[in-house]
Amino acid sequence: MEALLGWQVAMASGPNMMAPVCLVENNIGQLSVNQEALEILDKISQPVVVVAIVGLYRTGKSYLMNRLSGQNHGFPLGSMVQSETKGIWMWCVPHPSKPNHTLVLLDTKGLGDVEKGNPKIDSWIFALAVLLCSSFVYNSMSTIDHQALEQLHYVTKLTELIRAKSSPIPEGIHDSTEFVSFFPDFIWTVRDFTLELKLNGLRITEDEYLENALKLIPGKKPKAQTSNLPRECIRHFFPKRKCFVFDQPTSDKKLLANIEKVTETQLDQKFQEQTKNFCSYIFTQARPKTLREGISITGKRLGTLVVTYVDAINSGAVPCLENAVTTLAQLENSAAMEKAAAHYSEQMAQRVRLPTDTLQELLDLHAACERQAIEIFMENSFKDENQEFQKKLVELLNDKKECFLLQNEEASAKYCQDKLDELSMVLTESITAGTSSVPGGHKFYLETKERVAQDYWQVPRKGVKVRKMGSMWILQIKIKSGFCQKSERTAPTVCHKRAWGYHDRFSFEGPLFALSS
Predict the structure, then answer these.
(1) How far is residue 294's CA from residue 271's CA, in Å, rounded to a whole number?
(2) CA–CA separation, 56 vs 477, rounded Å?
(3) According to the 3-state scheme, what is the secondary structure of 153-182?
(4) How far is CA 305 from the centre of its chain?
């Protein structure tokens, strides 16, 4: 009851859908996923509790789903004989009792509709509901008897419509035992229930009523085996089961025809209590949707599952859980890799100051940003088997590092050249004016060149090209001053060695203005 009271409070913090939208459409025997619904799911990063309801048409499925949404109307309620729901409709609302969770309600097309009916599509709708939800509600009328179980024949085809693993399965062997690990909880709702909950004269609970109805009929006759098949499937596939029975909402046929406009006070008191008990159970007991190995499903992941399953159906294949998980992993790990790489680029751009004083300074910064990027990848990835995507990320970051190294060299070369041009302006002008050829000019040339070298060495943060650009500048000056031939025969002076930090085997290699070391 507290969950019901908390519904309006939760509305303020979750998805704001004013009405349901079609999630899976049935277009002349072909299923398609509605893009609008996918866009809604894509924005839901919270874990989702998915409740799907399935049953024969005109059995009041949509009314129960509207009550779970906290509304009297929303999912279409037809007052005529035809069913109103086509395909699967979706309504996402904030979960009233699980903070930071979204309640996703799926209302399915009425099964067995003679006008819109297509047995094959009915089977796929049933299978999709099982695959997508964490709580599966089967809605029927009057009693759980032989006829009601026969109408649930779709459950007997689940091994034909769903596969747990992608690897080939030997003929005659089903991987149905795998289903239990990812199948939803099963809830049977019986509408307009008129019987007394008694067995052999003793009162029984609704759950005991369901379990008694699922008891196998003794005997090996074909008729008994046929009757037992849906019972066996429900018992095997859905180990966690629950039952709710509902009285008729009202005996007034006019009110029944417009039940979405009827206030609660106009409905039968017992029906109100039964409806609240059902809603309270869903709000408190329905678990978040997960896949095998406890993979939590968010709205975004649910959208991926829908597309993957529907694509498989339309291609003539059977929806496979293992393939769906692989698709999820590929999409999310690719996104995690992109997010991590973007963070690396952003942090490097913000923190690096080119040119760096030393190569190690840049490598240390790369290592720090790389660690952060890998942490982000690990937080946003899952099932990265053999670290396939993490290895790709490291390769991508290494490529980005090489780009920064090149930018660092280019920035260092430009900065050094600009400083040398600035410091040697007087020397360059004297050479151009020919002052080095007059008496005393050569001495002025040597002293000025050495002073430029010493001043250049004092300039901070010249970067990795400091010596390369210095040696290139000396060569340029010698060429300009006409001393190139003489310099080739003369070793650098002690002053030059100290100023530039040259080694005895120093040589000028490569093109005159090359940027590589």
Answers:
(1) 37
(2) 94
(3) HHHHHHHHHCECCCCCCCCCCCCHHHHCCC
(4) 11
Write the pLDDT tens digit of every residue in 102-112. 999 999 877 76
Structure tokens that stand for 464 in this block = 């990795």
Q: Any idea what DSSP says for residue 512?
A: T
Range of 147-151, 187-191, 229-233, 426-430 with top mean pLDDT: 187-191
Separation CA 470–CA 456 (nearest Å) = 8
Q: Model pTM greater than 0.70?
A: yes
Cβ-based burial of 308 (10 A; exposed 0-12, middle 13-18, buried ≥19): buried
Comparing C-alpha atoms, which of 124, 138, 149 is closest to residue 53?
138
Q: In whole angstroms, what separates CA 396 from the centre of its chain? A: 21
The H-or-E segment that residue 516 falls in is: none
Concatenated DSSP letters for 238-294? -SSEEEEE---S-S-HHHHHTGGG--GGGS-HHHHHHHHHHHHHHHHHPPPPEEGGG
Q: In whole angstroms, what is the distance from residue 109 CA to residue 125 CA?
A: 8
Three-state DSSP at 387 gives: helix
Q: Which helix (H) or strand (E) holds 103?
A: strand 102-108
For the segment 120-144, the average pLDDT, to the nearest whole number, is 92
Q: What is the dihedral of CA 138, 141, 142, 145, to 10 degrees?
A: -60
- Quote the CA–CA distance of 253 and 261 in Å, as a whole number: 13
416 Cβ neighbours under 8 A, 6+ residues apart: 456, 462, 463, 465, 466, 469, 470
pLDDT at 397 over 70: yes
State which amino acid sits at residue 407: Q
